[in-house]
Amino acid sequence: MQSFSDFINELTIGFTPVIGGEYKNEDYAYIDLSENNRDLLRLEVASSEAFSIFIGEFLKNRKAKAAYGGYNELRTLYNRSELFNNTEANRNIHIGLDVWVPAFSDIISPLSGTIHSFRDNDNFGDYGPTIILEHLEKGRTFFTLYGHLSRNSLVDLNEGDEVKAGEKIAELGDFDENGDYAPHLHFQIMENMKGITGDFPGVVKKEDLDNYLKNCPDPNLLLKI
Predict the structure, then answer these.
(1) For the whole model, what pTM was predicted?
(2) pLDDT at 85 over 70
(3) Rounded mean pLDDT, 110-118
(4) Which of 88, 129, 160, 212 is in the most buried spot, having the most CB atoms within 10 Å?
(5) Alpha-carbon span 166 to 163, nearest angstrom
(6) What pLDDT, in 10s, does the model give residues 117-162?
(7) Angle at the Cα of 139 (from 138 to 143), degrees rounded to 5?
(8) How far from the centroid of its chain's Cα atoms is residue 21's Cα?
(9) Which residue has the higher pLDDT, 40 or 93?
(10) What distances in angstroms separate CA 43 from CA 4, 19, 181, 196, one per listed residue?
(11) CA distance readout (Å), 170 to 56, 132, 173, 204
(12) Which residue has the higher pLDDT, 39 or 113?
């Protein structure tokens, strides 16, 4: 049977937007937010405002409109939150794709599907408002997650509602409702939801990484930024 990663890669031919508006492929710049980025050492990562300024300067210096990256990335910035940094969890490896654009940017579905579930994961450092879509393509079912949305994005949603490819499904939230982050979309693909609704781990510990990477391939295989 074809691997899940290969299957996802073959669903799209070229650049497939997840952010609405006039963004083109060349408007995106890759950003490294791993422990290897020395610029982060000078940044107060606990401050969402400081991080927003950092992202803004990054984009300005590269003459870009959006930043992206983060899949399978070891990050120290999660140390600020007990949700990740505690003796039981100790989670610091990011397995989604982050897209850094302004708050209230439109979020669109790259594929047709239905609303699987949604929830406001309102812990400090969590996703905040989150939507999960279910997709059926070429006989295979899988799921996509959209985190750090605005609370207004969850109003009047119903599980099972149909979504068309390219249709607006939400807006990005600002730091006061998105888990206290600089505005960005956390986009993730899951083959198996493992019985979870409205949420799914997007940051995992090293011991669990291999299993999660098999279930959650690189989202850029789909988006092709």
Answers:
(1) 0.92
(2) no
(3) 98
(4) 129
(5) 9
(6) 999 999 888 999 999 999 999 999 999 999 999 999 999 999 999 9
(7) 90
(8) 18
(9) 93
(10) 37, 27, 14, 35
(11) 22, 11, 9, 26
(12) 113
What is d(CA 73, CA 91) in angstroms, rounded to the nearest whole number? 11
**Cα 92–Cα 94–Cα 98 angle in degrees, nearest 5:** 135
8-28-45 Cα angle (round to 5): 100
Question: CB of 57 within 8 A of CB of 40?
Answer: no
Residues 30/33/38/39 CA torsion (nearest 10 deg): 70
Q: What integer pLDDT is reported at residue 82 of this predicted model? A: 43
**Tokens at 161, concatenated:** 């509602």
C-alpha dihedral sign at 100, 102, 104, 109: negative
With contact defined as beta carbons under 8 Å apart, do 114 and 133 qualify?
Answer: yes
Burial of 98 (0-12, 13-18, 19+ CB in 10 A): buried
What length does the chain have? 225
Residue 11 token pair: 């669903």
With a CB cutoff of 8 Å and minimum separation 6, the contacts of 224 are 12, 14, 15, 16, 25
